Amino acid sequence: MTDTQPATVSAIPPTAFPVRSGGPIIWLRLEGLAVLIAAVLSYAHGHHSWILFAVLLLLPDISFAGYLAGPRIGAMCYNLLHSYASALLLAAVLFATGSSPAIALIWIAHIGMDRALGYGLKYASSFNDTHLGKIGK
Question: CA geometry: angle at 58 spanning 10 and 8, to 5°?
Fold first, then answer.
């Protein structure tokens, strides 16, 4: 890295962190499953609309459109909409304003579902390079 090139997380190649099957990857995927279950149970407990749930569950995947501008922008868009921090920030705002947390719970469920399936946060190198390992072939 040169003095003119700032250090960024996206500059770190995924191969710098070799990912193997098993171990922490299994725990991270189980954690995603636990989050999915907790979000769905919380949603059910709030007696929210299941039609709304079905309609909005895949909405965060609109972030794929960012890949039309290249892998760096695509990864930024994907990670923004697939980060627990973003969804929890929305949940906090909804709770603080006395609004229904339904949309935040759906968003959190989506992220948990993706993590349980092995779709992790993306590196700028490729859509297939994730913090949970390489996806696809």
Answer: 10
**Among candidates 75, 71, 72, 73, which has minimal Cα distance to 83?**
75
Which residue carries 């072939």 as its tokens? 137
**CA 103/CA 91 separation, integer angstroms:** 8
Mapped onto helix, strand or coil, the DSSP state of residue 133 is: strand
Secondary structure class of 2 (helix, strand, coil): coil
Q: What does pTM read for this prediction?
A: 0.83
Strands 133-134 and 126-130: antiparallel
Averaged in consecutive runs of 10 residues, what is the pLDDT profile of the chain (137 residues)? 49 53 86 98 98 98 96 97 98 98 98 95 91 81
Look up residue 48 and give its two tokens.
């929210």
